[in-house]
Description:
- This is DNA/RNA-binding protein KIN17.
- The protein is an alpha+beta fold.
- It is 46% helix and 18% strand.
- The chain contains nine helices and 15 strands.
- The strands form four sheets. A five-stranded antiparallel sheet has the order 9-8-7-6-10, with no helix packed on it. It has a five-stranded antiparallel sheet with strand order 14-13-12-11-15, with no helix packed on it. Strands 3-5-4 form a three-stranded antiparallel sheet.
- β7 and β8 form a beta hairpin.
- The chain is elongated, with a radius of gyration of 43 Å.
Amino acid sequence: MGKADFLSPKAISNRIKAKGLQKLRWYCQMCQKQCRDENGFKCHCMSESHQRQLLLASEDPNKFMDYFSDEFKSDFLELLRRRFGTKRVHNNIVYNEYISYREHVHMNSTQWETLTDFTKWLGREGLCKVDETPKGWYIQYIDRDPETIRRQEEQARKKKQEMDDEERSARFIEEQVRRGRDSKETDETPVYTELKRESEEEKVAFNLGASSSVAGPSKSSSVLGASALKTAASSSTKRKDTSSSSDSRGEKKKKSALEEIIEMEEKKKQSVRTDYWLQPNIVVKVITKRLGEKYHKKKAIIMEVRDKYGAVVKMIDSGDKLKLDQNHLETVIPAPGKKVLILNGPYRDMEAVLEGIDEKNFCATLTLDSGQQKGKSVDVAYEDFSKLA
């Protein structure tokens, strides 16, 4: 019987069946052929081409098994990294998504007999974090990319620096409050002195109005009384002046401590860093490989910033416009003497001139070229400034 016509129902049915996934037990990995049923698989095993492949495999079986195992492992981990990242996921979910691709490497041609054995092997090799639960095995991909590790270390360093600044400012505020409290207690404490007379013959006289009208006091006693009243008045005036001066001194001290606390709070607000740094009219470099070698490590100019974390960039070489995330870009350090824009930290949005580079501390010395602090020299990290377009 001849072959069915291309547009006949039988031919169309055969093509539809061949296009879908078939049972794994009727698949020959050596020949990369999928059979539709047991009879077809039996006929394939008896064919001359299959026998030749078996002879080639029998010469070095470990070589073929290692090759298929490496292919299966690399494809499985690539799917896990790209699809789920570092999330914890059931191994069967990843496997079902992996075998949905028709041309995948089948597990029966690898060194692992079951998915559980493969999951345990991933845990022993340190490629994934694995744990067993009543619902089955769960895996979590461990990202060992050098770029990712560098980014995590940089974020940890920035977080530690921010914590150190907060602790330092908190200790300074506590010290200022303690000093203000001590000065207040010292000013309010009265000073007691002993009553002393210059000579024992000196007499103390008091001029009382009622007694003077009745008895008629002598001239000397009235003089002494007047002098005593003047002394008392002058002492009370001095006491008032002393108390007022001490109060004013206390107020000055309190105001100075308060002003210092306010200044520290303002500096703290200025030193708060943000997790977005994109600014228009700066030069950046594309670091993602997903766009191909045409754009990888090429420089571009940011034309527009969208939603703080995205930007429309124009490639300098080709003039193409791309929309990229800030994670796919990095800053550009120009030659000394060129103008830069500070993107993060207390001097954010200020223009400056690059004076020198400190490779040991991963920072550069900049001279501010705008604002009230123009001419001031500051040290800024590499990732906190970029070349102006």
